[in-house]
Amino acid sequence: VRATRGGEEVKAYVPSMGQIFLRRFQMVTQFRQAIEEGQVTVHYQPKVALPGKQVLGVEALVRWQHPEFGRVDPDEFVPAVEAAGLVGVLTSFVLDTALDRVRRWLDEGLRISVAVNLSVRNLADADFPSRVAESLERFGVPGELLTLELTESGVMQDPERALPILRGLSALGIELAVDDFGTGYSSLAYLRQLPVDQVKIDKSFVFGMGTDLGDLAVVRSIVELGHSLGLTVVAEGVEEDLARDQLEAMGCDVAQGYLISRPLAEDRLEAWLQARTVRSLDRTSEAVLTL
Ligand code: C2E
Ligand code: MG
Ligand code: MG
Ligand code: MG
């Protein structure tokens, strides 16, 4: 692509459709092996209580360091993996990695929950709840320390099929969260019928709330709606003190975002927690931020 800016010719690299297709094809065919070779890892982003600074849990976010393409974002490879019917492999990998992490925290006396993102395809798999149950049992993690995040559009795509699966998951005592809330098209009435425990306000509204009254109104109404339905309300994309203060004033329960921490590789998360936690001797208290 060529364009001119101030009389100067500027060239930008725009991959052709063929190149995009080839790259996606390569990625999906290499995915299983990439997991085996350790190219695919899980990073964790802390979530803290509002008000206060108690670390309640972390969200597991997948990362792929590809030998040829470098770091590939989940927004690119997750849809490709889904389309190739390989999402079961992805979800199992992330779930097992995350539960293994929670197990080791429990052994150190820390109760930190982990949230794992689901794909629409997981909600079409009738065996999925029993696979989650098997994983919890294998790692000896109580259901209440696992949250599964699903998007509104994921549920709305085929509610008839998703609902029994959600009920099966809910019966395991885990938390279910609706992710990216506010961006989809689900009705409030429908949300009431789902066995969900949490709503996560989409980051686009949280980014805008300091300067845009419309975004502020959306955030406020999600907090009110969520609470009136008895749900825990989580805000993602909290980047600034102002947003955190506004959310706290509205009564939003949990904050997640770069202000608190970016997603961290496991060793960096450990260092982050070590610097901030009071580890109890009786092995029962939760991680508490001391700063
Ligand atoms: P999500 O589940 O809504 O995750 C939150 C995304 O927002 C993450 O992007 C996180 O890094 C980013 N984020 C959090 N706080 C801030 C902030 O303050 N500012 C900004 N600019 N961004 C923030 P990430 O890791 O790139 O993941 C993107 C999406 O990919 C996720 O959105 C989720 O839908 C999907 N994804 C990630 N990991 C998995 C996975 O293991 N399985 C599945 N099925 N999907 C995944
Ligand atoms: Mg999520
Ligand atoms: Mg989100
Ligand atoms: Mg998302």
From TrEMBL:
Positions in coiled-coil regions: none
Domain EAL: 24-277
Domain of life: Bacteria
The protein's name in its UniProt record: Diguanylate phosphodiesterase
UniProt source species: Saccharomonospora piscinae
Residue window of the full protein shown: 594 to 884 of 886
